[in-house]
Amino acid sequence: xxxxxxxxxxxxxxxxxxxxxxxxxxxxxxxxxxxxxxxxxxxxxxxxxxxxxxxxxxxxxxxxxxxxxxxxxxxxxxxxxxxxxxxxxxxxxxxxxxxxxxxxxxxxxxxxxxxxxxxxxxxxxxxxxxxxxxxxxxxxxxxxxxxxxxxxxxxxxxxxxxxxxxxxxxxxxxxxxxxxxxxxxxxxxxxxxxxxxxxxxxxxxxxxxxxxxxxxxxxxxxxxxxxxxxxxxxxxxxxxxxxxxxxxxxxxxxxxxxxxxxxxxxxxxxxxxxxxxxxxxxxxxxxxxxxxxxxxxxxxxxxxxxxxxxxxxxxxxxxxxxxxxxxxxxxxxxxxxxxxxxxxxxxxxxxxxxxxxxxxxxxxxxxxxxxxxxxxxxxxxxxxxxxxxxxxxxxxxxxxxxxxxxxxxxxxxxxxxxxxxxxxxxxxxxxxxxxxxxxxxxxxxxxxxxxxxxxxxxxxxxxxxxxxxxxxxxxxxxxxxxxxxxxxxxxxxxxxxxxxxxxxxxxxxxxxxx
Amino acid sequence: xxxxxxxxxxxxxxxxxxxxxxxxxxxxxxxxxxxxxxxxxxxxxxxxxxxxxxxxxxxxxxxxxxxxxxxxxxxxxxxxxxxxxxxxxxxxxxxxxxxxxxxxxxxxxxxxxxxxxxxxxxxxxxxxxxxxxxxxxxxxxxxxxxxxxxxxxxxxxxxxxxxxxxxxxxxxxxxxxxxxxxxxxxxxxxxxxxxxxxxxxxxxxxxxxxxxxxxxxxxxxxxxxxxxxxxxxxxxxxxxxxxxxxxxxxxxxxxxxxxxxxxxx
Amino acid sequence: xxxxxxxxxxxxxxxxxxxxxxxxxxxxxxxxxxxxxxxxxxxxxxxxxxxxxxxxxxxxxxxxxxxxxxxxxxxxxxxxxxxxxxxxxxxxxxxxxxxxxxxxxxxxxxxxxxxxxxxxxxxxxxxxxxxxxxxxxxxxxxxxxxxxxxxxxxxxxxxxxxxxxxxxxxxxxxxxxxxxxxxxxxxxxxxxxxxxxxxxxxxxxxxxxxxxxxxxxxxxxxxxxxxxxxxxxxxxxxxxxxxxxxxxxxxxxxxxxxxxxxxxxxxxxxxxxxxxxxxxxxxxxxxxxxxxxxxxxxxxxxxxxxxxxxxx
Lengths: 514, 265, 312
Hints:
The structure holds three protein chains of three kinds. Chain A has helices spanning about 1-25, 35-40, 65-70, 125-135, 235-245, 255, 290-295, 300-310, 340-350, 370-380, 395-405, 420-425, 445-455, 460-475; strands at about 45-50, 80, 90, 95-100, 105-110, 150-155, 160-165, 195-205, 205-210, 225-230, 250, 265-270, 275-280, 315, 360-365, 385-395, 410-415, 480-485, 485-490, 495, 510. Chain A is of the alpha+beta class. Chain A folds into three domains: about 25-55 and about 195-270 and about 490-510, D-Maltodextrin-Binding Protein, domain 2 (3-Layer(aba) Sandwich), CATH 3.40.190; about 75-175, Dipeptide-binding Protein, Domain 1 (Dipeptide-binding Protein, domain 1), CATH 3.90.76; about 275-485, Dipeptide-binding Protein, domain 3, CATH 3.10.105.10. In chain A, the strands form five sheets. Chain A has a seven-stranded mixed β-sheet with strand order 8-9-10-1-11-19-12. A six-stranded mixed β-sheet of chain A has the order 14-18-13-17-15-16. In chain A, a hairpin with a 2-residue loop joins strand 6 and strand 7. The longest helix of chain A is centred in the first third of the chain and has 22 residues, at about 1-25. The model of chain A is unreliable at about 1-35 (pLDDT under 50). The mean pLDDT of chain B is about 85. Chain C is mainly alpha-helical. Chain C contains twelve helices and no strands. In chain C, helix 7 crosses helix 8, helix 7 packs across helix 10 and helix 10 crosses helix 11 (about 265-275). Chains in contact: A-B, A-C, B-C. The interface of A and C includes residues 203 and 241 of A.
């Protein structure tokens, strides 16, 4: 009897001590030394945490994911490049003129721009790069907007002219396309550009290392070396942040950011510059029925999602355009469908789903904001009778299955733009576009797009693009949610983070303070 | 043993409490385990919320009950499948012996060369995730160990006097195997079953922790642990309560098994 | 010697079956590998060409034989996701996992054998405490131990930096410091099991006739324990430890995830999710070979410890 009591007591005591032993320090412990970061500071380098591995191919003309583009932005430049205000500034080109008829673009190359192998950029390289992306022999050209190109010509060593079939207001924005060395055949494995950083090495699923390019034509990078470390598991990412092995990490959720010690990290707030939505496969049942999609729009409470995921921050969007597109963004579309679960239920009943239906939302598990959003959305949809299962998959699987394979029912992801033309956001919903992963098919939309890209009147074009956005909203192409608030954790002592209106992270301006 | 068996009783007590929680959790929980409330996030444990609330304002205790229930269903299902098939294979090979026995046992050896969690991982990757696939995957992975244990028991009993006697009385093979020999192997099989449940709980939580076990809206303890780790800084009770549940569940079963062993001595 | 040869033959046979099963499993998977490589937009002709190139059109057994021969020669195939040889991908990861396993195994052995001897034959409360402690340790899943260790030693005490794994070639000291904690997480439950095993083994031996005889001949307790009892009690323990070292490698999938260690387990896990089957297949077969090999070695050691086994 006595022994039994003792055993019981011991058991409880042990359980208690194990549980409390680690609970005690969990509130606010002082983190003094952050091992390693001083060393990195002394070596003038940083570690950037990213949640997903880059694509297999690092070829800047082929890689399609925002995550890859975010990294490659630091390595490559086009003839022109965007600055943080969203304007195009000259990069590889020093200056350019557009002929009065709007069809011939003449670029004077900047003298002394070098590739990372030391070679100077010549007109031949530019011609090669543009032609490579315009080449339609393998089906569609790598850059769809380049299909209007008629001729690319090197006038002399440092002048290039590009002639296009008809005037195109957006064309110049696509010349941010990376300039690569002529005939260089290792783009997929060893990037070679003209940007402020040069590629050093890559270890799949582990890291990508880049270092300062000393012969950069411009101001150049402040840091000597940057290591991107891949943490596909959000727990591991958080641990690494708290433990001090990462100096900079973007795209955090409010819950993640709020756990970081403000003596260690400054939390900067920007916008992610993407359209987060429940993207619906318009070919998959029951989303091939517009009425079903519309019904579900009433079931989504955007404010609640923002409250849970980003502490109330973020901007609601109602179509495929985010606020940084000041010229095109239509805030009123966010109110087109107001949150009204009763109405959603009613509409569902009208179209033959009085008891709702089952659906699966696929989401890439490494992306915490989207995973959390999926949980909230699922709960909101359940309230109107739609039984949601969340399928978390690895990023690569998501990319293969959902994006490339279009083999999914619904998915939550953020869609960004490669440049600040409305076309970059809206072209993908043209029925024949290769990146139309939601299988949106609307002849009216296709027609509007054709009009928009051929018109020479900027105002008419803006109006057409707005019409297209409205169409997406009216037909409920997707359940639009928000442009996420981008929380970036940056180690105290680092400065110079600049937010861009596109989904990039410019590392060249970041540096340690003395 | 004269004195009362402390381990057994502590084990039974813990296991009973956990089982009751799980059984109740199947039908009723204090709160809706998936109801979110943005005004109630990260509440520390209190009388209203025994285990506090999580980042979505969900009641952790209710979720733990639900998770416990899922964990139970998966573990029992796994053991039922693994032990069921394992006993059948073991009984047949052990009882009849011969060439079939040798071939099957060689394959059995080969299969058990794949560590069970790996086997489950691969099977799940072929089948896709979800509760029932976890049961199937783990169940298959558990078959070889039961087959081996049962086979050696049957081989040992095959030529014992009571079996020969039954045979002489004209009992059929099936009858001899399952109503004569099987009950006599319980001393070996019952602990193996308890250890099996234990391992199944561990394996299920590992798989769900890796994110390839159960999927939302289902919850299991491993899944919750993986989720809660994200909020260790803001809601330490979440991770501790969830982890504590797993520990208690396995501890209860472990003590129960230990107690049973001591009782036999 | 004959015993060893027979066991060796058995081992090779098992490996053959293992490799066959693994190969078979990855052949019956639904889905076309050309889909994964070429994407969904490829034409049927392109697929056919790739199939021809990959030799997918040959009969199953021929393909298996071909694969096995290449495998034995060290050519493990090419990854679908990363167009590089699997062998190259493994080269950096395998040593990490082996080092982790070795560390965990060392900790297990060094701690558990003395502890097992100590705990045997001590009745009363020491015994109870040991048993309860053991049960408790076994009840905590390794990944939960991992979480707690990361928290306590990584974040609060800062003995290591979570997420900042350093490779052995870079800094052996830092590498080992980092790996000790995951190794402990793996080892703890194993220690509890080994202690329990050894303890009951010793207790069972102590009750045997030869021990009583030895006692009556006037040998002192510790001499009996170390010269006779331990030798016999170690036989099942060695087998168990062998299983442990095999399990450790498999269990590393979870622990490597918790501690963000770039080892084979993590590669396996992500390859499974990415359906990169050549990588999965290679790792699975290697791990199974590892298990079979370790069991073989355990058999040999056991036979040295207990020559009777030779006759069986």
